[in-house]
């Protein structure tokens, strides 16, 4: 079975004339380091991306927020979470906003955010996570600059998420602000065509495709974001009603809905139980491939789950442990991306780390 999956992964996806142009499947199986690889180092920081490179991730997955002064920063949460960051000192004397822990990213300037220590606290769920005391939240530009130092040939691939809250829009910057600010940084980087833009808020995928039709987009979905609100629609699905799409299962309907907004990739939860089964199913993967989409589930940290997903024919896996999943991929006889030289990566990390 593994051999047949390898052969099929190298074949072009067959689609009808009515479907969008399919994405070519890369030769290396897509092992994505979730938040850089938060099982191994403090998430969404330069050290986590350094270890993602050293561990041989195919793709670095990360999250973006937008500050009060319009800067794209790399962070997962809408607010500064006390279990991840510590206050140090105010950005300027008498700052009435201080302390900053607990504040929303959208209500803090970059200067205020840069005072936070977000590298000292190991997360309870990740007991092997390396800490890097004093580590600051980085801008997206700073992350690109660091990785370019370690990756001068620009081979690294990216999966970058807009952390927009469709259910509580006043907690984050708007769709328009997110998309325009992120795209400006993407377009100025040497990685502009190696980036996948992903979001749970499908409005941002529509807006990004409108701004840049060539941008590869990935529709994130879990069971919660498929559920309807008082108006009979989910706030996350760009006004789409899944019941308007044909399909014998929820998974197939999700594929058809994501395809209707020209998403190139579907990224479903691997663990959501939709009575008794994962949201990611074989019929979902089969339908996605029929219409020219790839499927890359999240966040896969159990190899038993990874075994099932590979049997379905998924095109990649997003994981907190890219080093472990990479070894597993090799054991299946699949091609993996090369590792980056540890000495060079750590040298670049030292040069790009600002205390």
Automatic annotation (TrEMBL):
The keyword Transferase does not apply. InterPro entries: GP_PDE_dom (IPR030395), PLC-like_Pdiesterase_TIM-brl (IPR017946). Residues 29-329 form the GP-PDE domain. Residues 1-17 form the signal peptide. One of its GO terms (molecular function) is phosphoric diester hydrolase activity. Keywords: Signal. Pfam families: GDPD. The keyword Heme does not apply. GO terms for biological process: lipid metabolic process. This is PLC-like phosphodiesterase. It comes from Mycena maculata.
């Amino acid at each position: 079975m593994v051999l047949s999956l390898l052969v099929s992964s190298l074949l072009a996806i067959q689609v009808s004339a009515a479907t969008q142009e399919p994405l070519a499947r890369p030769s290396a199986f897509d092992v994505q380091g979730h938040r850089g690889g938060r099982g191994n180092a403090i998430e969404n920081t330069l050290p986590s991306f350094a270890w993602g490179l050293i561990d041989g991730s195919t793709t670095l997955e990360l999250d973006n927020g937008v500050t009060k002064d319009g800067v794209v920063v790399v962070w997962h949460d809408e607010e500064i979470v006390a279990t991840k960051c510590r206050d140090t000192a105010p950005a300027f004397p008498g700052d009435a906003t201080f302390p900053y822990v607990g504040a929303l990213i959208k209500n803090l300037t970059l200067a205020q955010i840069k005072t936070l220590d977000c590298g000292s606290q190991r997360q309870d769920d990740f007991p092997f996570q390396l800490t890097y005391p004093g580590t600051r939240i980085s801008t997206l530009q700073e992350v690109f600059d660091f990785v370019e130092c370690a990756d001068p040939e620009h081979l690294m691939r990216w999966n970058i998420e807009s952390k927009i809250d469709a259910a509580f829009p006043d907690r984050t910057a708007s769709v328009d602000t997110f998309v325009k600010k992120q795209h400006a940084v993407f377009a100025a980087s040497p990685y502009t065509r190696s980036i996948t833009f992903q979001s749970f808020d499908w409005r941002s995928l529509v807006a990004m495709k409108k701004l840049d039709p060539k941008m590869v987009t990935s529709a994130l979905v879990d069971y919660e974001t498929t559920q309807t609100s008082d108006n009979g629609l989910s706030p996350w699905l760009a006004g789409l009603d899944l019941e308007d799409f044909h399909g014998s299962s929820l998974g197939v309907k999700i594929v058809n809905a994501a395809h209707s907004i020209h998403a190139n990739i579907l990224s479903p939860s691997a663990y959501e139980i939709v009575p008794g089964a994962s949201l990611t199913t074989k019929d979902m993967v089969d339908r996605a491939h029929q219409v020219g989409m790839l499927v890359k589930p999240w966040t896969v940290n159990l190899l038993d789950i990874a075994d099932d997903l590979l049997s379905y024919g998924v095109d990649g896996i997003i994981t907190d442990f890219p080093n472990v999943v990479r070894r597993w991929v090799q054991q299946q006889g699949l091609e993996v991306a090369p590792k980056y030289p540890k000495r060079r990566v750590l040298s670049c990390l030292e040069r790009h780390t600002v205390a």
